[in-house]
Design brief:
Chains A, B: Keywords: DNA-binding, Transcription, Transcription regulation. Two copies of one chain form a homodimer. With 352 residues, chain A is α/β, with parallel strands linked by helices. The structure holds a DNA duplex (30 and 30 nucleotides).
DNA sequence: ATTATAAATGTAAGCGCTTACACTGACGAG
DNA sequence: CTCGTCAGTGTAAGCGCTTACATTTATAAT
């Protein structure tokens, strides 16, 4: 009795499908990629064979031959935090709608790790890359250019960056919020920021606050800023530190909502009421901002819109449709309850 | 004047490196993959060429030839929610430490999307897959088996599942929490659960509550359960609904922290104090649970440990080291402030 | 019917890498 | 001095797919 050679336990290949359908591999390939270049009857036969064999194209082989992966990579600073979650979810949905798959990896806010991940994704054939912000060394942009992998920056807007961006003006947004704080009578203002090194969003937000201070003729040198990593507990600690000063601030602006929630927590521990004793503001308007109490006055960022637009723009770049795609999205101040008039001020501008 | 053929603008290949170093492609390949099989002097020369050319191996080609990708795929129900974030972060870190890359995609809690993503990741050559829970149709497991792609389930433990799991006993954990609730005098108990269809974690948690009820000789039929998707606002709405009953519950157990925070929010809107008027509990112990007020009494799940162990177990499976790796992790009840004695009960068992 | 033209399909050459196998030369044993 | 051994390299055969080009077949115009 002969061994049954055809007992094919391995995963079927294009060749198997072709043989089964009685056509050439080219035809099978066309059925899968350009169905309209194959006559109906043949296509039906091929598709049947595909189904019968449960054929799935080998991705690596396809990539190698076609030099396209329909894969977009995204490298975000962290997954362990909701800041990027919503925008990324929208980004993925939009990609999916256009037939692309998203690969996500995180850099832990470390430039060297980010670079490694960029190379890994490019090596894996990502057709395009979504990066957060603009802060990175020139060589990596050159690398991307050499590899001809288009990249787009999000969560930050820069008119003439090395790569186009879909984002918002962190500086102007923070400035607007700070002006509101100042309008409410606050003069002693402090800030808890994320680490600004290698993070243009954080840096721009700081600058925005300074802009507002200057515009109101307040002394920028008086501004105390504590930089810390994005964790609730760190926000609490920084806040405690700030309030231990001889002349503690009456308003603490935070670089993001996570830090602001931490500050809130710090205030609670110190027995301070927000906003009666001290005002706190956030940035990003993640869900957390709404459900914490008091609910955070913060800068609303259109995360979902940003994700969606970034996806469309990036795919356009990948498919070579358009060139310049940068877009500046509008942010707004979301007034909730963590910001109030400066204590000791007689006149609340909103209730004169 | 002849065109300068050697002006190679394209990305360098193994061949280019080999030529530059004056060796064969096999040697270059060996330098990269089995450095000790090449003599020092040659290796140095090759490495120099690699550096000079800024050579990066073509991933697809490597995969195709070697049939290994050093890539692990993970499919989680959603990224738009912190439940999986921490565990996944730990998972990625552990993978990275062992030289693997993580590819994440999300299924939006939809079985059909999950299946699509599984196939996509397998096609992309994932060496192994991390899946959440055990609820999926048999054919997909057969597919995985046929493709010889090992998979591991996390966030759920099942002794004899189709695939091994690194998780915890959702049922026992919820039962333990419910017993605590009952011990505090609560008799009218309700639950807000995630959609249990296709979600074994949600289902097990419901069963756990029922177990506790039965053990305390309470009528399971009296238990009202509202199922809704994991969003804060849905938790609030479900809570409001529950409290509008003729005989509202005195304790509302939630399928997870997000829903519990929503319930809390609902209570606030209704003017109910937690836990004086009504008790609320969560599940998962994500950061949110600690910072919401009142801080949530919830089930603590060792997310980071789970992620780490899952990574190690999965890699062991991929590398064929071990076979059975299932592990049941311990959970604990995290007592905070959202659970109190039943109102109207004279005796608080903790302060008799 | 005949031929020009277009549509459908087949042929086969890679894509860039790994690896089985072949080869070379140095070394120690006999 | 010869031969077997073996470490270090080279040769070349794929891996499974896409696609330019060649070939065949259908369609339309004469």
């Amino acid at each position: 009795m002969k061994a049954d050679i055809s007992k094919d336990d391995a995963t079927p290949t294009l060749d198997d499908v072709a043989r089964k359908a009685g056509v050439s591999t080219a035809t099978v390939s066309r059925c899968l990629n350009n169905p309209d270049r194959v006559v109906e009857a043949t296509r039906a036969r091929v598709m049947e064979a595909v189904k019968a064999l449960e054929y799935t194209p080998n991705f690596a082989a396809r990539v190698m031959a076609a030099k396209r992966t329909f894969t977009i990579g995204a490298i975000i600073p962290t997954m362990d935090n909701a800041i990027f979650a919503r925008g990324l979810q929208a980004f993925q949905e939009a990609l999916h709608a256009r037939g692309y798959t998203l690969l996500v990896s995180s850099s832990a806010y470390r430039p060297d790790v980010e670079e490694e991940q960029i190379r890994a994704l490019v090596a894996r054939g990502a057709d395009g890359l979504l990066l957060i912000g603009h802060d990175r060394d020139a060589p990596i942009y050159e690398y991307l250019e050499r590899q001809k992998v288009p990249a787009l920056a999000a969560w930050s807007f820069m008119e003439d960056g090395q790569i186009p961006s879909i984002g918002f003006d962190n500086r102007a947004a923070m400035s607007a919020l700070a002006k509101e704080v100042i309008r409410l009578g606050h003069r002693r203002i402090a800030m808890i920021s994320g680490i600004s090194q290698g993070n243009d969003r954080a840096r721009e937000r700081i600058e925005g606050l300074k802009d507002a201070l200057r515009e109101s003729a307040l002394d920028v040198d008086d501004l105390e800023i504590i930089e810390t990593t994005y964790e609730v507990e760190n926000g609490a600690e920084a806040f405690t530190q700030l309030m231990s000063r001889d002349v503690p601030p009456t308003a603490v602006l935070c670089g993001n909502d996570v830090l602001a929630v931490g500050a809130s927590l710090g205030a609670k521990r110190l027995g301070l009421r927000v906003p009666q004793d001290v005002s706190i503001t956030g940035f990003d308007d993640i869900e957390l901002a709404r459900i914490t109490s008091p609910a955070l006055t913060t800068v609303h960022v259109p995360h979902r819109e940003m994700g969606r637009k970034a996806a469309d723009a990036l795919i356009d770049m990948v498919e070579g449709k358009k060139k310049v795609v940068s877009a500046k999205l509008e942010t707004s101040i979301k007034k909730r309850h963590s910001l109030g008039p400066c204590p000791g001020t007689n006149d609340d501008p909103d209730h004169p």
